[in-house]
Amino acid sequence: MAPTISRRESGALINSLTAGVVPRIGLRHIAVGRQNEVNAFLNDMNTIEDGGASFRLISGQYGSGKSFLLQMIRNNAMDKNFVVADADLSPERRLTGSKGQGLSTYRELLQHLSTPTRPDGGSLEAILQKWIMGLQSAVSKESGYRPNEPQLVGAVSERIAETMMELSELAYGFAFSNVIDSYWRGMKTGDDDLKQNALRWLRGEYATKTEAKKDLPVDCIIEDGSWYEILKLFAVFVKKAGYKGLLVFLDEGVNLYKIPHKQARDSNYEKLLTIFNDTMQGKAQNIGVFFSGTPQFIYDERRGLFNYDALRTRLEDNRFSSQNFVDFTTPVIKLNQLSPEELFILMERLCELHSAHYNYDCRLGENELTVFLKTVVSRLGADQLLTPREITRDFLGLLNILYQNPETSFDALMNEQNYAVKSAESDPETISSDHDDLFAEFDI
Asked: What is the distance between the alpha carbons of residues 116 and 114, in angstroms, rounded to a whole number?
């Protein structure tokens, strides 16, 4: 771990990891293993930067590091000047649904739209202004119009139309271009209502076409069935704005698996298939779409993605893959358990993190870490349900007790009768067939 970690980063890491959630910052200080997986995503970024697209599914059991890896890739992408957007799927946020669940996902993504200068989201307007101001500067230089001359408004509008011609050939591209122009005109003429209406449209906040048409030169709105098409437009647009592309991260894919009604579930799988085909067949540009989910969500042939034949044939493993030979170019990246050596390094870094944050010398050395690790991996079921999440949370708990009680020794704690490093009793993201009757079948 780098010794220059800030207290903001160390505090966020300790608080998040102790609570069992993924921190948004500082992940590089505790990242262990996964180098092949990271390299696969770096290759994807190169493809996206060159005008291509990518689709990935990260598969791993509860607590195995799916969300951690997505967050690490997200931060890495921003460092490389990509625009990123992330959302957790839930019963209210899906890929599609009769109650606007797909549009809810889109709105969440737009809310979390992030850039290197705005890593915490809310970057939509900043991206628009960056592109428009660059366009205005170029037009002013070529035409000689000064910023306060009224002729500049029309000249920039013409340049917007020319530049966005490529988008006009895509679905909803003409409306998207008109909305961008409306934002420019509102910004330049001081018409704040026009500017805010343009932002409302881009955020998917118009409920009816009639309302949108009254405020803007458009004949459509962003709806449950069209939000992905708009993201594809955004991907091309951010590339024109000087970024390398758009990366979309959708976590908690298991919530699609949990949809009780088969028709609704299959509709979401059909939408996922559309996204897969678009990105893998070259129909989309400058965009990457990355999902995460449990193995059950992907491989269950009763209600998972493998129940949907078109997806199963596309997501099947390379037949030559094995434990010793893994193909990291396939759409599905499987996260295996960290090795004992990697877990040891993780605990070393947690010691450094904890002692740096609280400004003390950690008393645990190689022998103590080895004892703790042996205790962990020797427990029944550790090979299946003991994940980095449980190990990290328990180890930080141990460090907290030792720090707050300096008179207590590591050996004394490890020999406590009631002490045990426990694995999860079951995977909370797994659903058995016995649970189907607990779901209402009317949720379409």
From this structure: 7
298-303, long-range: CB < 8 A, 24+ apart: 298/57, 298/59, 298/332, 299/59, 300/257, 302/433, 303/257, 303/262, 303/265
Handedness of CA 222, 223, 225, 231 (dihedral sign): positive
Handedness of CA 38, 39, 40, 42 (dihedral sign): positive
pLDDT per residue over 299-351, tens digit each?
Answer: 999 999 999 899 999 988 777 765 667 777 889 998 877 778 888 888 899 99
Please report the beta strands in 116-160, taking only residues with DSSP state E, as ranges in sequence order: none
pLDDT digits (tens, 9 = 90+) for 25-68: 788 888 887 888 889 999 999 999 999 999 999 998 877 788 88
- Report the candidate in 113, 57, 105 with the shortest Cα–Cα distance to residue 85: 113
CA separation, residue 59 to residues 153, 327, 430 (Å):
50, 14, 13
Q: Is residue 75 helix, strand or coil?
A: helix
**Contacts of the segment 205-210: beta carbons below 8 A, 24+ positions apart:** 205/107
